Amino acid sequence: xxFKSPPVNSLSLEFxxxxxxxxxxxENNRACRGVIITSAVPKIFSSGLDITEMCGKxxxxxxxFWRAVQEMWLRLYGSNMVTVAAVNGSSPAGGCLIAxxxxxxxxxxxxxxxxxxxxxxxGIVAPFWFKDTFVNVVGxxxxxxxxxxxxxxxxxxxxxxxxxxxxxxxxxxxEKAAAVMAQWLALPDHARQLTKTMMRxxxxxxLVAHREEDIKNFITFVxxxxxxxxxxxxxxxxxxxxx
Length: 243
Ligand SMILES: CCCCCCCCCCCC/C=C/CC(=O)SCCNC(=O)CCNC(=O)[C@H](O)C(C)(C)COP(=O)(O)OP(=O)(O)OC[C@H]1O[C@@H](n2cnc3c(N)ncnc32)[C@H](O)[C@@H]1OP(=O)(O)O
Description:
By secondary structure, the chain is an alpha/beta fold. The chain is 56% helix and 14% strand. The chain has a single domain (2-242), classed as 2-enoyl-CoA Hydratase, Chain A, domain 1 (Alpha-Beta Complex), CATH 3.90.226.10.
């Protein structure tokens, strides 16, 4: 799957819905045993959740949007397929969540590309299931420091921390992803799938059990004037940085 929503592959409601439908189709296709996720937009894997979806919209819209974010994660993190992220650009916040939800992460070895859960820098809080996914990849201490500081880690640091599994030159990224996929697909599906379920089930179940409460929390949180102000200021900062 190649993300192609210029300029920055931000995860809008429409993008998330299409992504989830795409994953569902592949999941239901018995001929498909694995998926490599990458980007067709130069230098950007995904800029994370589309901030405009969280600014100045109705309570109903926030609810619909958050349900779509949850749905995407439940499908990807809970997928029976082998999932490999070929991270060919920067990948903040929700973009990082997508990579973290895969079975294996390969990143282009460009120190200008960064990845991490930077929510704290926007004045918002990564939800518990973002945090759980992160902890399951890098461990508690690294996740705690990185989340509190809202760190975006340049590719070499991301590899040192275990946030990505390996770095390769950009031109070799897809070749390497295909080789990793072949290695993972060499195992019998049922054994690999049951093992994956065993490792991820508790974290998935926790969101399933608290899904409606999580949506309510999101709506309450994002509707606060202080949070709206932080998001608006962040968007302005992005625009100013450009000019
Ligand atoms: C007890 C506690 C209770 C807690 C309850 C919790 C409940 C919920 C909490 C809420 C959690 C919400 C979770 C959010 C996760 C996210 O994903 S938030 C999004 C974070 N994303 C970012 O910070 C990335 C921001 N973007 C960038 O850093 C850069 O754009 C880039 C590095 C990706 C690319 O840089 P460059 O190539 O230089 O492009 P730009 O000129 O910066 O951008 C082009 C264009 O796109 C717009 N844009 C960029 N990112 C986004 C985005 N994420 N959403 C919307 N729009 C974006 C940018 O403004 C530019 O627009 P214009 O061309 O100027 O119009």
